[in-house]
Amino acid sequence: MKKKHFAVTATIIIVIVLLSSLFVINYHLSLKVEPPHAYVGIAYCGDSVTQGKLLIDKVKGYTNLFVLQSGLLQRDLDCVNELGDYAIDAGMYFLPYFGNFIQESFSVWLESAKTKWGDRLLGVYYTDEPGGKMLDDYVKYKDNTTGDSITKTRYGDVVLQKLNGIVINYEFDGDIRLSEPPPAGSNSDINSEVLFRADGTVEIIKDAPKGFSYKTYQELYEIRPFKDIDETAQRFLYRDSDNIDFLKNSTKVFTSDYGLYWFDYLAGYDVVLGQIGWNLSVNQQLSLLRGAANMQQKDWGVIITWKYQTHPYLDNGTEIFSQLQTAYECGAKYFVLFNYYDSNSGTYGTMLEEHFQALSSFWHDVVENPQIIQGSVKADSAVVFPKNYGWGTRWEEDKVWGIFKADEQTKQLWALTQTAISKHKLNVDIIFDDTEFSIPASYVNIYSLNK
Known about the structure:
- It is built from 13 helices and 18 strands.
- By secondary structure, it is an alpha/beta fold.
- It folds into three domains: 39-134 and 232-366, TIM Barrel (Alpha-Beta Barrel); 144-224, no CATH class; 381-447, no CATH class.
C-alpha cells in the first residue's frame, strides 16, 4: 500500500515538473526579445581558434558582435562552430565570412547553425569587396550564351578567351590584341598575333599561316563584352546572383566594400559594410553608402579598415572614435573594426590598446548614451548620378566600372559632388537615377547633370 502511494506521489511530482518546464519553455518562447539598435564588434582575421577566443574575452564587455573573417578558418566548419559557440555564449551575435562554398553541403551547415544559434546568427558575410574588385582588380566572368571566359583586369583591359583557344585583349587605351593558336596539325606551338590600334593601323606581330579569323577592328569590337555601362552593370549584377539568391532564401547576406555600394545592393546583398579608411573622404563614403541603402530600403554599416599599408595600419584611436560616432549619427546600424593578424602581431592582432579604448568609449559614451541619437544627421540634399554609371568617385580621373576612362561627364560629376559636399557636409546623399526608385521629397536640394 505504501509502495502504491509512493508511486502515485512520484508520478504526480513528475507531471508537475514536466508541466512547469513546458510552461517555462513556452513563456520564454513567447517573449519577444528586441534586437539591439546597434551592432558593435571586431572582425577577427587570425588563423587560431585560441586567439579568437582571447579576443572575444577581451572585448565582450563593450561589443555585441563577433565577425569571423579568417581565410583559413572559413574552410573548417568545426572551427567556425567552436568560435560561434564561444561568441554567443559570451552574449554576442555572430557573423561568419565565407569567400566561396558548395551549396549542397553548405546548406546543411547553415540550417544547423540557424537551429542552434537562432537570431544570434546575424547572417553570412559572403565574399569581400565585389565592387572594389570590379574597380581595381581581376574579376572573372562566364558568358552563359557562348561559353566564353571573360576577365576584367586590374589595368582596365577586358580579355575574352573563346572555346577554340582564340584570345582577344581589349586594352584600356582602345587597342585590340588578337592571339590565335596554331592550326590543327601544325608543328608550331607559337600563337599568331596581331594588334589592331584604335587609330586604324594594324601591326602583325606573328602572322597566321591561314590568315586571322577576324580581319578588322570593327569586327572585333562588335563581339566585345562590356561595350557600355549598361551591359557592364547587368553583368556585374548577375555574376554571382546564383549564390547570393541561395543565401538570401535562408539568411541575411552581408559584404564589405569601398565602392559601387549602390550596385552591391542591387546585386542582392542585404547589408553592406562600407570601408572607412584608405585615406578616402569619410564624408563622401558615408554619402554614397547611406544614399544607396536608404533609397533601396536596406541596412548599412561601416568597417574601420587600414589607413596605412604598414604598422600601425589603423588610424589613431581618437580618429576611429570620431568616425564611428559620425557613422552612428548618420544612421549606420553595424560598426566593425578590422583586426588583421600577421607574423608580427601581438596577442590581439594589429589593434593597439588605443583602438580597443576607442571601441569601448564608442560603446559606453555613444551607443549607450540616450542623448546621442542614432540617425539624427539626415540628408536633405542629393547628388544624382546617371543610371548605371559605376564610377569609382575617389578622384576626378577615377575609372568607370574599372574599365572605362574618365571623360567630360566624369569631371562634371566630380565638380558637382565636391560642391554639394562642401556646402551640405554630412547632409547630402549620393544616389543614382533609376526608375525603380523614386527620389524622396526629403531631398530638398537636387544636384544632377540635368539641372
